[in-house]
Amino acid sequence: VIAVNEVAELRRILDEVRDAGGRVALVPTMGYLHAGHLSLCDAARRHADFVVLSVFVNPLQFGGGEDLEQYPRDLGRDAKAAMDHGVNLLFAPSTATMYPQGDTVTRVTAPGISGRLCGRYRPGHFDGVLTVVAKLFNLVSPAVAVFGQKDLQQATLIRSMVRDLDFRLDVHVAPTVREPDGVAMSSRNVYLQPDQRVAASSLYRSLQAAQAAFTAGERAPAALVAAAQAILEGESGVSIQYVELVDPETLEPPMQARRGDALAIAVHVGETRLIDNHLLE
Ligand code: AMP
Predict the structure, then answer these.
(1) Tens of pLDDT, residues 189-238
(2) Which of 23, 82, 233, 257 has its CA 20 to 30 A from that of 168?
């Protein structure tokens, strides 16, 4: 894998790839790679001949009091894992490379959708996400970019940004990769103590409870939300931030639940904030 941290070198290499007829895919991450990230790399490989993985812990998307400093980092291990999954280029810029002025004067913002779900509890977070992803799109000019279903609201916002601002690329959203007990893989799972790690499996069980109610014919959004909530409330050490049923395109609640609607959850387990979601089937 070619490791690059400067913009000029990145552009030079990618121009050569494209001149030779190569199709470039981008997988944006904050690193500390797990099997979820690597499944995105595998998906990228299927859609392109040249896979770029970016690793950048983006200060713009962290609020005051969030875990920017503690966020786990291990670029050496990431480079090795990326190589094993067919990544061609690892782009790991410094903060100064991404934000030479220290900040941006311009932000990409989507006030309506950003204000829902996680956005209510993380003001400014999605502006930071959209701004860095727009920068990465302009730096890499990928033909396809791959994101995870795990971050439902992020995927919705990126699809909207690509459509609204005419970015010339396809967005691919890949399924959530889970641990054997159902816990969605996340770099932040390293924060969990053993008992908290067990409590975290209640998120998946609560999503399954909502799915079971839907399968049994329940279509009232409040009843599906209540089925999920009941599981989370029965778990000591889990405090609910939200449980909502939404249309994954608008993040608005439907009148009646339909196949494809998303049950979305955010909780705290101790100090650690966990999110998960499930598309009803
Ligand atoms: P992050 O490094 O947490 O910012 O995530 C980078 C990308 O990986 C995002 O598109 C996430 O949605 C995706 N991702 C994170 N966790 C998972 C998972 N468990 N399964 C699939 N994709 C994931």
Answers:
(1) 999 999 999 999 999 999 999 999 999 999 999 999 999 999 999 999 99
(2) 82
CA atoms of 281 and 275, how far apart (whole Å): 20
Choosing from 29, 33, 37 the residue with most ligand 1 atoms within 8 A of its CB, the one to mutate for a pocket test is 37
Helices 152-164 and 125-140 pack at an angle, to 10 degrees, of 50
Rg (CA), the chain: 19
Smallest CA-to-CA distance from 270 within 204, 191, 216 is with: 191
> What residues does 79 pair with on adjacent strands?
none
Mean pLDDT confidence for 57-68: 97
* Residue 115's pLDDT band (cuts 50, 70, 90): very high
Ligand 1 pocket: which of 151, 185, 201, 207 to mutate (most atoms <8 Å of CB)? 151
**% of residues, the chain, pLDDT over 90:** 100
Residue 107, amino acid: R
Ligand 1 atom 22: residue of nearest CA? 148
**For residue 33, which of 202, 162, 185, 160 has the smallest C-alpha distance?**
185
- CA–CA gap between residue 65 and residue 121 (Å, rounded): 12
Mean pLDDT score, 73-86: 97
Say yes or no: CB of residue 185 within 6 Å of ligand 1. yes
Per-residue tokens: 146: 């791959």
- CB-ligand 1 contact for 58 (6 Å cutoff): no
Render pLDDT for 164-182 as a digit per residue (tens, 0 to 9). Answer: 999 999 999 999 999 999 9
**Distance from C-alpha of 184 to C-alpha of 160, rounded to nearest angstrom:** 25
Report residue 71 CA to chain centroid gap.
15
- State in Å: Cα 218 to ligand 1 middle: 30
Strand, helix or coil for residue 271: coil
Supply 264's token pair.
Answer: 């979305």
